[in-house]
Automatic annotation (TrEMBL):
It holds the Pfam family Peptidase_M20. InterPro entries: Amidase_Cbmase, Bact_exopeptidase_dim_dom, Peptidase_M20. The keyword Amino-acid biosynthesis does not apply. This is Allantoate amidohydrolase. The keyword Hydrolase applies. Belongs to the peptidase M20 family. SUPFAM superfamilies: Bacterial exopeptidase dimerisation domain (SSF55031), Zn-dependent exopeptidases (SSF53187). Keywords: Hydrolase.
């Protein structure tokens, strides 16, 4: 197989995989047919470039470009070369998501290797291109699960019991086990990602760097009431968990708007989910993000307080459970100086990324963003222009060349 000559050809290859013919959005949930096809594509692209692919027990993939001596192309040095550099992103998507969130970083990393080879770069140390699994948490509810497992931030004993909405257990899909330590010697990690907001639009810049990630998390609200008839049950006689949920969602919106933070209820399950029945239970998931740990704690506490107060009026019960919480992340300042260029905007991000997990685990990390002219993400409307994507590839190749050359 011949390696694709450019970014655009690789992008065309990926475009149809997992795409909905109805919405135009993507359904690339982990360990489904679409995501498995992307993993096969990744292996093919790595093989076409003579990169050596490894897979850890959790499904994370990494393709290694190893140092070679002059005149010995293809003669790989031992895998224990010290201080490798890592780049990459993820291949999975949210439900009905955009094309760029995740795959842009993987495709750009492969294209950056092509560009460095065209320049005659010979790596002095290994470069790994990672494709982390279940970054979005769209199937098993735990964001950045692959990178959390790889660094030991989440245990396999905990993760293997996670189930998807259909009741499929993660431990029945993945071998799992102890982390293999493939990240233990990594010197630094650089992730390119489509911007998921409007910062680069405001700066009129194609590429920017990230300063850090807001603290954020997911909380599950289990609200129980009493099932009853929608017609014969008087309003004053009901214990309706849907009312408790609705009031809580409105309160979360008000609290976040008033404090300049973020609060979203984007997933709700209702039982028994009948049109002509008062529900017996509602389970809702709160996604909350804030510009500091204290602000996040205050926001979640305000939402929980409202839920409990409203449940007292409705005759329902509420339990709030934190499912995943990530603290504030400040990316490595020295690395950001290395990967950035003069005049490149530096932006905070409210979105979670594998780079945040690695930075929190002690691996110096940085991020590059590519402009999203729609300003919309986690949606079929997410986009990026080809010229901006190519500028991102160049910025990534420039940075990696400084790191591995």
């Amino acid at each position: 197989m011949t390696a694709p000559a450019d970014f655009e050809r690789m992008w065309r290859d990926l475009a149809p995989i997992g795409r909905s013919p109805v919405s135009g959005g993507y359904f690339r949930q982990p360990w489904t047919a679409a995501e498995l096809e992307l993993r096969s594509w990744f292996r093919e692209q790595a093989g076409a470039r003579d990169l050596i692919v490894e897979e850890d027990p959790f499904g994370n993939l990494v393709a290694w470009w190893r140092p070679v001596a002059p005149g010995e192309e293809g003669a790989q040095r031992p895998s224990r070369d010290p201080s490798p550099v890592l780049t990459g992103s993820h291949l999975d998507s949210v439900l009905d998501g955009g094309a760029y969130d995740g795959p842009l970083g993987v495709v750009s990393a492969l294209a950056a290797v092509d560009l460095m080879r065209e320049r005659g770069v010979r790596p002095a140390r290994r470069l790994g291109i990672a494709a982390f699994v279940e970054e979005e948490g769209s199937r098993f509810g735990r964001a950045c699960l692959g990178s959390r497992l790889a660094v030991g931030a989440t245990s396999w004993a905990d993760a293997r019991e996670l189930t998807d909405p259909a009741g499929v257990r993660l431990g029945d899909l993945v071998e799992g086990g102890d982390p293999t330590g493939w990240l233990s010697g990594v010197d630094c990690y650089l992730e390119l990602h489509v911007e998921q907001g409007r910062g680069l639009i405001d700066h009129d810049a194609p590429v920017g760097a990230a300063s850090g990630i807001w603290p954020h998390g997911r909380w599950r609200l289990d609200i129980t009431g009493r099932a009853d008839h929608a017609g014969t049950t008087r309003m004053r006689d009901r214990a309706d968990p849907m009312l408790t949920y609705a009031a809580t969602a409105l309160a979360a919106n008000e609290a976040a708007r008033g404090s300049g933070q973020r609060a979203t209820f984007g997933r709700v399950e209702v039982r028994p989910n009948g049109t002509n029945a008062v529900p017996s239970a509602v389970t809702a998931w709160l996604d909350a993000r804030a510009d500091s740990g204290d602000a996040l704690a205050e926001l979640v506490a305000a939402v929980e307080k409202q839920a409990l107060q409203r449940s007292g009026l409705d005759g329902t019960a509420v339990t709030v459970t934190a499912e995943s919480v990530t603290g504030e992340v400040s990316f490595d300042a020295a690395l950001r100086e290395t990967v950035g260029s003069a005049g490149m905007p530096v932006l905070p991000t409210q979105a979670g990324h594998d780079a945040g997990i690695l930075q929190a685990a002690g691996i110096p990390s940085a991020m590059l963003f590519v402009r999203n002219p729609s300003g919309v993400s986690h949606s079929p409307a997410e986009t990026a222009g080809t010229a901006d994507c190519l500028a991102g590839v160049t910025a990534l190749a420039d940075a990696l060349e400084r790191l591995i050359g």
